[in-house]
Amino acid sequence: MMITSKLICADVIDGLRSLEDNSIDLIVTSPPYNVGKEYETDVSKEDYLLMANNSCREFKRVLKPDGRFAINVPFTMGSHSITRPVMYEWENAIIDAGLTIRDYVVWNQSNSGNDTAWGSWKSASCPWLRHQAEVLIVGYNEQWKKLHKGESSISPRDFMQWTIDVWTMPCARSKFHPAVYPEELPKRCIELFSYVGDTVCDPFVGSGTTMKVARDLKRNVVGIDRDRGYCDKIRQSNAFNQTTIDGSVEYVYEVL
Ligand SMILES: C[S@@+](CC[C@H](N)C(=O)[O-])C[C@H]1O[C@@H](n2cnc3c(N)ncnc32)[C@H](O)[C@@H]1O
Asked: What is the Cβ-side half-sphere exposure of residue 50, based on CA atoms within 13 angstroms?
């Protein structure tokens, strides 16, 4: 089976606009949280919400009627000395775009509870919760049940475990990207929610984690990121390397 792995270096909206209507089976992604990471300019709350809203409108257009999404966000995020309800912001954008939320998966990041930002130590004055969990917002475009039968790649054991809505796995680290998710996260989404040969899109692809996993699972994949440095790194990595898999992958790179 011939599959295509396409990387688009562009702003999310331009990148998505370059895709055909009804062309994507599954969106798996982790958007920027607007907390001042090296890859995000400090945008206003209004501009961030506009980006989330416009992205979700494009998700609606590019997803097939039975297309699905799994969007990884934190419940809340502290920035500018206030806590923002990031999950709620994306839920609103998803619903406003006409997409439907079906489920949530709690990602128990078993290794991330070591920070010592307590707020007020041993006092009810102003304690801070130390985050050790994020969430996957899971949903669909028009209908959850797939319109066609296809080949699934998930094992019975993984299906039993991954259909439980708490996934425990440590955070990942990368030498060249400050906020990667572990390969296991997109792997579970892709195997649970798509068939072999389907088309997966990650519109905030970062270091290319989703592209590598989707390619290895024999899914077509489109990754978008506006950062030229990350795109160059992906092209040099084994997410974009002809030699890591037999010759049945076509790699495409576009700069918009
Ligand atoms: C949380 S990171 C994704 C990391 C990815 N899941 C991984 O494992 O490598 C979010 C990415 O979104 C990209 N990004 C931020 N704003 C963007 C925009 N407006 N358009 C396209 N990409 C954007 C950033 O460059 C960053 O790489």
From this structure: 5
Hey, whose CA ends up nearest to atom 26 of ligand 1?
A: 206
Instruction: Give this prediction's pTM.
Output: 0.95
Domains of the chain: 3-113+129-255 (3.40.50.150)
Please tell me if the CB atom of residue 209 comes closer than 6 angstroms to any atom of ligand 1: yes
- Cβ partners under 8 Å of residue 250, min gap 6: 2, 3, 4, 5
Q: Using CA positions, which residue lies closest to atom 13 of ligand 1?
A: 204
Tell me the pLDDT tens digit for each residue of 42-80: 788 899 999 999 999 999 999 999 999 999 999 998 755
Name the amino acid, one letter, at 123.
Answer: S
CA dihedral 213, 215, 219, 225 (to 10 degrees): 80
Nearest protein CA to atom 7 of ligand 1, as residue: 180
Q: What was the pLDDT predicted at 190?
A: 98
Q: Is 74 in the pocket of ligand 1 (CB under 6 A)?
A: no
* CA angle centred on 38, ends 37 and 40, rounded to 5°: 70
